[in-house]
Design brief:
single chain
Length: 170
């Protein structure tokens, strides 16, 4: 059952507000009845307690009926779309050969060339303009493009390089 949102929400809002006012009025009526019964009947403390308990239970039953709080029957309407997925088998079979082209690698044995690394006594840096002994730890940090090598200390002195403070001036 479909209603336009404005009419249904407006109707339910007024219904709830009306029920709320009716509940407040019934509370005050039950309160007045309780005060009158306690004054007229001249009951002791236990009797007054029983009267208040009975009026409270009657008030709760009235409110539950008024607000529709039926605990035994609860109706709920849910509108949902039902979506079903259907799997279809694949009917097209592709029968093509798979062709992979693998490159052929040719390996050539090359003779090993002896390295021409000569040991030099001194190593200098053209960037920092400092020279070191080849055993100095700082000489191993010089990049190849800035490295100058020589067996003669006077070579670096003539180029006005400074001596390393760690390895030479000790």
């Amino acid at each position: 059952m479909l209603f336009t949102p404005n009419s249904e929400e407006h109707f339910h809002g007024l219904w709830k507000l009306t029920n709320f006012f009716i509940a407040i009025v019934m509370f005050f009526i039950a309160l007045v009845i309780g005060i009158i019964l306690n004054d007229r009947l001249n009951l002791d403390l236990l009797g007054k307690f029983i009267v208040v308990l009975i009026l409270g239970i009657l008030y709760l039953i009235f409110i539950s009926v008024l607000f529709g709080l039926h605990f035994f029957q609860r109706t709920q309407y849910i509108d949902r779309e039902i979506i079903k997925e259907v799997e279809r088998p694949i009917e097209v079979i592709v029968d093509r050969p798979v062709i992979h082209r693998v490159p052929e690698y040719v390996y050539v044995d090359r003779p090993k060339v002896k390295s021409l690394n000569k040991r030099f006594d001194f190593v200098g840096s053209s960037e920092a303009r400092v020279y070191h002994k080849s055993s100095c730890r700082f000489s191993k940090l010089i990049k190849k493009k800035f490295k100058l090598v020589s067996n003669d200390k006077s070579y670096f002195v003539n180029l006005r390089f400074k001596a390393c403070k760690n390895c030479i001036k000790r």
